[in-house]
Amino acid sequence: MNPRLSSLQAYPFERLRDLLAGVHPPALPLIDFSIGEPRHPAPALVVESIIEHLHGLAEYPKVLGADTLREAIAAWASRRFTLPEGFLDPEKHILPANGSREALFSVAQALTDSGSGKDLILLPNPFYQIYEGAAILAGAQPYYLNCEASGQPDYRAVAPEIWQRCALLYVNSPHNPTGAALQAEDWDFLVATARQYDFILAADECYSEIYFDTPPAGVLSAAARSGSLSKVLAFHSLSKRSSIPGARSGFVAGDAELLAAFRLYRTYLGNAMPPFIQAASAAAWGDEKHVIAMREDYAEKFAAAAEILGDLLPVERPDGGFYLWLQVGDGEAFTRDLYAVQHVRCLPGTYLARAAHGAHPGVERVRIALVGPLDICREGLIRIRKFLQTFS
Questions:
Q1: What positions does the domain Aminotransferase class I/classII large occupy (predicted)?
Q2: Do 371 and 38 form a contact (C-beta atoms < 8 A)?
Q3: Which residues is 237 bridged to in the sheet?
Q4: Domain extent for 22
Q5: Which of 113, 135, 197, 208 is the most exposed place for a label (fewest CB within 10 A)?
Q6: pLDDT at 192 over 90
Q7: Which residues pair with 146 in a beta bridge?
Q8: CB-based contact 240:35 (threshold 8 Å)
């Protein structure tokens, strides 16, 4: 057995299950804010495309994906991030993935070598736990960058000796769970730093299309400003953008040399996207109407949160994403007591972070995922208000 498996920590939802074991909530319908799984109906054009292309079950899918899918992805990314014509070559710079999660994990296995002296994989803290697991199973040491008051790490404060040991940097913007997005100048700094110190910049931008005012800046725009995709990999997903997590559809875009090696790895892994999902994905990347409607739905839910909880807790609409990252004191106690009194489930922030550099950025927080229908979210938020008023 791989000895590194014993170093993996329990996934947040396993820890949540243990925390709530033996708690007997009241006879109210469960409202689950714990998991970031979009629950909007799948767009009709996606469903229709899957049905239309089910004949693809008779074909082995190709790791590189169909030309039509890669062209649709390149066209979307070029529009979204205002890229020069031809900057993204669908043949060399795009690789479909079964959601961003599996690609974010496997990129560390395929493209890093802990024996080279580059023994660190850097990640924000709090973080998506896939980053930590990927680092450990790749034989690297996770190095946690605590998020500041801004909701993102201060990347400019990282010491040169840490950058020198860095094999790969995971960046999440907008960030899960804080919702904070990097600015264009931050991306410019990270692109330049990746090239200066020779590490891979893995930009997880799966929440980039859930925003409320200004579209978040992206790493591909910074790469275009620099004139090169060297050392840059951008990860995107339809799970959040189009509310189809069950389709497991995303892509990686960037450095052609890195993607050629990653494609070889994935050929052996055998995780090509089914043809009918490819067809549906191409349709989704080509349509913005359903995404605009989705953003309006999330805006309504954040407005409801501010209305219902704003006088009791500091509720701020994030730059992007669909999470409330609430400061509540003891996050585990809050989660357990809320479940016991109101049958509402959220996630303690301590399960999404680690103690590092003398601080633990999640211990006083809880994450609330506003992913359900508006009426269900309102009901859950009202129950949280009642809990706060009674047990504060």
A1: 30-368
A2: yes
A3: 250
A4: 3-41+290-391
A5: 113
A6: yes
A7: 125
A8: no
- Measure the N-to-C terminal CA separation of the chain; round to a whole number of Å: 48
Q: Residue 392: which pLDDT band, with cuts at 50, 70 and 90? A: low
For the chain, strand residue ranges (E) read 31-32, 94-97, 120-125, 141-146, 166-172, 200-204, 232-237, 250-254, 323-327, 344-345, 347-348, 365-369
CA dihedral 332, 335, 341, 343 (to 10 degrees): -140
State how many domains the chain has: 2
**Do both 143 and 249 map to the same domain?**
yes
Q: What is the pLDDT of residues 260-281, one digit of tens each?
A: 999 999 999 888 999 999 999 9
**Using an 8 Å Cβ cutoff, are 170 and 124 in contact?**
yes
Question: What count of Cα atoms within 13 Å lies in the side-chain half-sphere of residue 368?
Answer: 28
Same-domain check for residues 94 and 141: yes
Tell me how many helices (H) and strands (E) the chain has.
Answer: 14, 12
Closest CA to 351 of 119, 47, 125: 125
- Specify burial of residue 197 (Cβ count, 10 A radius: 0-12, 13-18, 19+): middle
363 pLDDT band (50/70/90 cuts)? very high
* End residue of a domain, out of 247, 263, 287: 287
Enter the tokens of residue 340.
């016991």
Beta strand 94-97 with 120-125: parallel, antiparallel or unpaired? unpaired
| Tokens 């939802």 found at | 13
List 253's β-bridge partners, or say none.
94, 234
Read off the pLDDT band of 139 (50, 70, 90): very high
Q: What is the pLDDT of residue 270?
A: 86
Pairing of strands 200-204, 232-237: parallel
> Is this structure's pTM higher than 0.90?
yes
In the block, tokens 């953008």 appear at: 241
Mean of the pLDDT values across residues 275-295? 96
Which of 203, 184, 181, 199 minimizes the C-alpha distance to 252? Answer: 203
CATH number, domain of 87, equals 3.40.640.10
Burial class (CB in 10 A: 0-12, 13-18, 19+), 364: middle
